[in-house]
Amino acid sequence: MVQTKADIDLNSWVDDYSDMLFNFAANRVNDRDLAKDLVQDTFFSALKAWERFEKKSTVKTWLFSILKRKIIDHWRQQQSRKTKPISQYTTNDEDENNWIEATTPYSEVNETEAFFENNELRSALMGCIDLLPEKQKGIFIDKFIDHKDSEEICNEYEITSSNFWVIIHRAKIQLKGCLDKKWFEN
Amino acid sequence: MIDCKKAVQLIDRKEFENLSAKEKLNLRIHNAMCGKCRGYKRFSQILKSLFGKITEHQECLTCEEKEKMKQKLSSH
Asked: Are A99 and B8 in contact (CB under 8 A)?
C-alpha cells in the first residue's frame, strides 16, 4: 500500500519521539540549539522520504537512523572546518602496536567527584569528546553513553574485539589529555 | 607477568565485563607493581563515573519548542 504524507500524524511524531531524539543528539553534539535543529531536520527528512519508508523497521528506529546520519554529517563538517591541528588528541593509527604511550602522564585527577553536578565539567567533557576522530567518537559514545554491547559495536563498525579495546583506550587517553588542558589546568 | 598493553585492556574490559579468575589475578599482580597502570585504572573509574552522571542527565525540549517544531513541520 502506498503511504502518503497525509497518513502522518506530525504532532504525534513530535510528542512521541522528539525528546528521545533530542537527548540522543544533545549527548553527541554538545549544543542544545544544534541538537534541536538536527531533530527538526530529521523530521523534515523523514517527511520527505515517508513514501519510500517500507516499514521494515519501526518509525522510531527509522527516525534514529536518519538522525544518526545527520550527526555523522555534522561531525564530518566540523572536522573539516577545524583549522588548528588536533594531532595532540588524534591518532588514526589503530595499529595494535604502540598500545600504551610510555610518556602518557597519568597524573591524579583529584576530587573530581565534587564537580559531578557542575555543568561546566559536563560541557568540557562533551567538548573533549567532540575533538575525538569521528569513528573513535562514535564508538566511545556508543559504549559509554548508550551502554551498547561491545559485540554489537564491533559488528556495527566492522572491527575486531581487540581493535575495539585499543580504540577505547586511545579515546580515554585523548580525553584525559584534553580534560587536563581544558578543565584541570584552569 | 602480563605487560602494560594487556593490563590496560583488562582494566578497560573490567568496567563492562566479568574477567576470568586468571585475568583478575594477573591484573592484580601487574597493578601491584605498576604505578602507571594503577593511575590508568583510577582515571578510568573517574571517567566512567562522569559518564554515569551524563547519562542520568536527560535533555528534553520545552513545550514551547515542541509547539514551534510542530508548526514548522505542518507548514512544510
From this structure: yes
Q: Is A119 or A111 the better-scoring residue by pLDDT?
A: A119
Residues sharing a CB contact under 8 Å with residue A124, sequence separation 6 or more, in sequence order: A179, A182, A183
Domain boundary residue among A31, A64, A81? A81
* Cα B47 from Cα A170, distance rounded (Å): 13
Single pTM value for the model: 0.63
Q: In A57-160, where does DSSP find H-type helix?
A: 59-81, 119-130, 134-144, 150-157
Measured CB to CB, residues of chain B less than 8 Å from chain A are: 4-5, 8-9, 12-13, 16-17, 35-36, 39-40, 42-44, 46-51, 53-55, 57-61, 65-66, 69-70, 72-74, 76
Confidence (pLDDT) at B75: 81
Domain count, chain A: 2
| Range(s) of the domain holding residue A165 | 112-184
ipTM above 0.95, yes or no: no
